[in-house]
């Protein structure tokens, strides 16, 4: 019997508790002289995954999704969620107490403009709102005739009596052979970027960037090996790393003390004020820095430079050692995937598997590598119509049996010490209908379009996005998510700043790792997504080329389900690509698996071209 150790399937939502908790919060707001308050799904770093002590939105409303905002007034309350979570929020939240507002219909700011009474004092926690977020809130509150108030101490925390303690997972030192660059050299590069941009210091508020800079990892949040921490890097002098000392072993402390001062996070505010003294210009990452730090800088006479952190681009472009680790991780993961796919092919037609069974099996095959540290996100395991829910997360309440003659979508990933993986395959159980084969093949053609793309240096993801959509567009179809996101090296599976999407404005650079995941979703019927990870690499040598060219190297090694492919829809070049990819999978993964899996793999990767 397979078991999932890194994922749970219980739905802890308790809509009935929302009314009582809302009443407690309103009483606390009244005690503080506030007429309203905003509760974002966020921690002080704007992390995608947050520790239990920062799940304020879930505690208050019952909503467990990864993005959302609650707006609480004296007489009204709303939770604003994007299209991924409209149905989930309606099921998890007490809709008699909270209005569920789709983001596509109105933003939190527009809701406030319409509902906040004139003269109201509306509160926010400046640790949980970015500089840009505060500016938007201030404009909305002013438009409603109210005033925005930064609170000292979150009122939710005051009434959340059994709030979990902050995490204290040990900080670990990254193996230099996997990091590929020593922390002093990274710090020198950061300082050079500060000098070039005429900045006096940088506050690193994104723990992913702190981890990359100092070559450390941790375990403070699920699915990502993060030590929650901060850093200040001055243009001159030693940086300071702010991390709870209880997380540091003597060896870790000694190693880190060679490159930085070590301080408790409670000292961050004072350190920021000191760095800003004398009119210094301090860069705050506009995406992650809390507005409280901007206020401290300005109060100390400094100047806030809100913009992208220079660390983000540095960590996105992996060095040779990091890429070697990613390749090794994907080989290992590919072998586990082959074992899983062979197992699924044998068991699914029996009609006894459930979505949870599939998640547990895949995680088990990965654990049996002996190298799995965690999954990189909760697996998306969608049978039939559940596969059409783009960010579906199976629970005991929604767990569906895998049926015959339908499609099954499995999107999953792993965290290994040498690399992070993310892969999606759509599998046929029984026989795929002609429509399914048509849609699958159009998605595959888009995937191949990205994988085969050759593009000049300086090209942004927005310029490539249509390569993945054109064959769907030709049939009047599309998908509503981006085509690809960045992926870290034993860090976040969703890493910025580059992405392949209509909104991807950051140029792609050598060494970046991005996903390639076009899809198609027919509500109530099935979903299709085909995802590999790709390295941005040197392009081919072209005679007479006037620009430096880049291309993609595919990392992921797992067969696409041949039973869902309609070869007549593929061009000779596309057929050649899929056959060459499958030959590579067969050649690289075959020697790593058992005899039975190897036999399955031979059939699963047989050539399509006649």
UniProtKB/TrEMBL annotation:
Domain Peptidase M24 C-terminal: 549-608
Entry-linked SUPFAM superfamilies: Creatinase/aminopeptidase (SSF55920), Creatinase/prolidase N-terminal domain (SSF53092)
InterPro entries in the cross-refs: Creatin/AminoP/Spt16_N (IPR029149), Creatinase/aminopeptidase-like (IPR036005), Creatinase_N (IPR000587), Pept_M24 (IPR000994), Pept_M24B (IPR033740), Peptidase_M24_C (IPR032416), X-Pro_aminopeptidase_P (IPR050422)
Name of the featured protein: Aminopeptidase P family protein
One function term, GO molecular function aspect: aminopeptidase activity
Keyword Cell membrane: no
Domain Peptidase M24: 325-536
Organism whose genome encodes this protein: Ancylobacter koreensis
Keywords noted in UniProt: Aminopeptidase, Hydrolase, Metal-binding, Protease
Creatinase N-terminal domain span: 21-152
Family to which this protein belongs: Belongs to the peptidase M24B family.
UniProt entry tagged with the keyword Protease: yes
